[in-house]
Design a protein that fits this description.
Elements (H helix, E strand, L loop, with lengths): L2 E5 L5 H11 L6 H10 L5 E5 L2 E11 L3 E9 L8 H15 L4 E7 L3 H9 L3 E6 L9 E7 L4
Parallel strand pairs: 4-5
Antiparallel strand pairs: 1-2, 2-3, 3-4, 5-7, 6-7
The chain binds coenzyme A.
Coenzyme A binds next to strand 4, helix 3, strand 5 and helix 4.
């Protein structure tokens, strides 16, 4: 599989929304994606397999201390090919550039595949957030402390 990573372009919005709809449980209005891109364009990254959008990552910066991963999804047929890891590593590089001390994210407590993925990328559970999601499910906060480069 030939994989490339690019910055998100708004012309890709409908594909990104479809990947989010199929692979993430929370629903977001279309304008949310564009707002996220405006706030931190270099960290809104798309993984392409040939000409097909296979996954994406996006996030924000809270204050000057931490970066947050807001969405990470790889479409099912493209998983286990290193695309999620590639997106994560590029996101981390962007977080290093803005000199935040850590990356934070929330994940459903029953999403064991994602929790394991994050642990394998250096994240640890730091908090439990009861009823965090719209359907009443709990979340873990996971954090990765960034080593200064
Ligand atoms: C979590 C997620 C983004 C991972 O994406 P991915 O592209 O499958 O990630 P990778 O391929 O880099 O890694 C996944 C696993 O495949 C393995 N892998 C990577 N390349 C591989 C290869 N060429 N052959 C076999 N296995 C491989 C990795 O070791 C990894 O194992 P791990 O999860 O135990 O660390 C994806 O499962 C997903 O979109 N899940 C649904 C959405 C979701 O839950 N998002 C997080 C919300 S907080």
């Amino acid at each position: 599989m030939f994989v490339q990573f690019r910055l998100f372009n708004p012309s890709q919005l409908s594909d990104i929304i479809e990947i989010a709809r199929k692979n993430l449980t929370e629903r977001y209005n279309d304008f949310v994606y564009l707002d996220i891109q405006k706030s931190w364009p270099s960290a809104f990254i798309v993984g392409m397999s040939d000409q097909t959008i296979a996954g994406f990552i996006c996030g924000g910066i809270s204050g000057d201390k931490e970066a947050r991963i807001l969405m990470l999804a790889v479409d099912t047929p493209f998983r286990h090919n290193g695309i999620g890891s590639g997106l994560m590593s590029l996101f981390e590089q962007e977080a290093q550039k803005v000199k935040v001390g850590k990356i934070r994210l929330e994940v459903r407590t029953d999403n064991l595949e994602a929790i394991n993925f994050y642990k394998n990328h250096g994240f640890a559970v730091s908090n439990l957030l009861p009823s965090y999601y719209n359907d009443g499910s709990d979340a873990y906060t996971m954090e990765k402390i960034l080593v200064k480069t």
